[in-house]
Amino acid sequence: MYKSLIRPALFKFDPEEVHYFTFNFLRHFCKLPGALSFLRSKFEVKDKRLESEVFGLKFKNPVGLAAGFDKDAKLYNELSALGFGFIEVGTVTPKPQAGNEKQRLFRLKEDSAIINRMGFNNHGVEEMVERLKKNKNVLIGGNIGKNKVTPNDKAVDDYVYSFEALFDHVNYFVVNVSSPNTPNLRELQDKEPLKKLLNTLQERNNKKANPKPILLKIAPDLTDDQLIDIIEIVQETKIAGVIATNTTISREGLNSENKAEMGGLSGKPLTKRSTEVIRFLSEKSGQAFPIIGVGGIHTSEDAIEKLEAGASLVQLYTGFIYQGPQLIKDINKKILEKGL
């Protein structure tokens, strides 16, 4: 029904406006008596065999929602009812910011892809904290970034601010230095700036009574040498793991008319490369740390490939938009079928 009726209707309109429309619809629908229970009964797969412990956290299933969908933690309880095992909110910055000028979100239907240049639009970390206080036992990841106006030599301060503000309200953190839509942000992936950032956060983390897992989200466009550096940095800073991968700046093999738009590309064209990065990190590190696999998961087979390549968990974004919530159920059922 989603792919035959709902998606064709939604895809007739501007993608960003559709995003807000579906958010409002889901919010109001879930206020109806029995609505959350109905969604859970339709999409949730409950089975002890899906449960796992990764970086010290217990996940009810390994399929999560990637950052960028619920930027301001407005709908994590409702989205969880669609069968997700965990929800990652953000990317959030210390201060509210409008992001880049519209139009900034583009569908590439022929390629089953999306290009976005949103630019970390969000209402700021303080507002997010107030929403997360209403959490009803959803496992939450907090994806943190820097404000656009913050120079790179002051970026650490932004990450520390959001880390401290969110600490009591999320289960794990993700350091986002890999979005292509904030000027110069990706320079923070260079070895020395990245080590400084992660060491600073880990020092703060280790002073807490109960430290939280910190993960690094990386770009798919890194070279093998840069990925080796990432492995060394993860092991040296002792962060909990890596999310592979963010969106790509590559436009190789695209057919859609919007392919020349600036921004990060997500969806099917990223499937192969993100899996390659997962496999490389897993093999070269000797499976030394957990990896969350994300990028181009549009079928249950795509998810299985990432898990078999070395991912401990997977996340959806563009595949969720193109395939609908049935994809979450299909992946979990396929995991059980494969005995993973």
Structural overview:
- By secondary structure, this protein is α/β, with parallel strands linked by helices.
- It has a single domain (2-338), classed as Aldolase class I (TIM Barrel).
- It has 12 helices and 13 strands.
- The protein has helices at 2-10, 15-29, 35-43, 76-80, 125-132, 155-166, 191-206, 224-237, 271-285, 300-309, 318-323, 326-338, and strands at residues 52-54, 57-59, 63-65, 86-92, 105-108, 113-116, 140-144, 172-176, 214-218, 241-244, 264-267, 291-294, 313-316.
- The strands form 3 sheets. Strands 3-4-7-8-9-10-12-13 form an 8-stranded parallel β-barrel, surrounded by 5 helices. A 3-stranded antiparallel β-sheet has the order 5-6-11. The chain has a two-stranded antiparallel sheet with strand order 1-2.
- Helix 6 (155-166) packs parallel to helix 7 (191-206) and helix 10 (300-309) packs across helix 12 (326-338).
- It is globular, with a radius of gyration of 19 Å.
- 45% of the residues are buried.
- The mean pLDDT is 95.
Task: Report a brief summary of the structure.
By secondary structure, this protein is an alpha/beta fold. Helices cover 39% and strands 16% of the residues.
Outline the secondary-structure elements:
Elements: H1 2-10, H2 15-29, H3 35-43, E1 52-54, E2 57-59, E3 63-65, H4 76-80, E4 86-92, E5 105-108, E6 113-116, H5 125-132, E7 140-144, H6 155-166, E8 172-176, H7 191-206, E9 214-218, H8 224-237, E10 241-244, E11 264-267, H9 271-285, E12 291-294, H10 300-309, E13 313-316, H11 318-323, H12 326-338
Parallel strand pairs: 3-4, 3-13, 4-7, 7-8, 8-9, 9-10, 10-12, 12-13
Antiparallel strand pairs: 1-2, 5-6, 6-11
Helix pairs in contact: 6-7, 7-8, 8-9, 9-10, 10-12
